[in-house]
Amino acid sequence: MLRRLVAGLAAIVLVAEAAVLVLVHIVLGRTTANQSMSIAGSDPDVMSKATYAMGAGMGAFLVLCAVLAAVAALGDRSPGRFARVVLITAAVTHGLLGVLAVVLVGWAAFAATTLILCLLVLTLTLYAAPRDGAGDGEGDVQPPPPPAYGELKPTGP
After folding, report:
1. Contacts from 122-125 at CB under 8 Å and sequence distance 24+?
2. CB contact at 8 A, 10 and 123
3. What is the pTM assigned to this prediction?
4. Which tens digit of pLDDT belongs to each residue from 53-97?
5. What is the pLDDT of residues 108-125, one digit of tens each?
6. Helices (runs of H) and strands (runs of E) counted in the chain
7. Sign of CA dihedral 83, 67, 69, 116
8. How far apart are CA 91 and CA 94, in angstroms?
């Protein structure tokens, strides 16, 4: 129950973060397009298009993370190998962004970034990785361990 709640909450928060970041990049892109000066000889039109592209890329990545977390929550299954790699990448990125956020934006941005980091890490740890290497959550039951050295095994009737 808890892991479904955490994964679902992570998906919702990631979608909200994606929307905010896309909106911020649209505003920055329009501001850059409306200015008439260049920064170090850069074309303002190229900079605004690059800002739009970066916003779209970040938004798409966060929505992908949200979809993967939502699939884990709805199916109550461990994310597969690809999903785990994507969610780990998002967690590491949020950790780095948290450090930058406290310096550049402030403690509120740090708290928001750290909250998302915690939700991602909780999602990854509550859904333990499958032990059989299949990555599909099936067959997580392991065979019994071999007997310890020197331990007697029953020989039969």
Report:
1. 122/3, 122/6, 122/10, 123/3, 123/6, 123/7, 123/10, 123/69, 123/72, 123/79, 123/87, 124/79, 124/84, 124/87, 124/88, 124/91
2. yes
3. 0.76
4. 999 999 999 999 999 999 999 998 889 899 999 999 999 999 999
5. 999 999 999 999 999 999
6. 4, 0
7. positive
8. 5
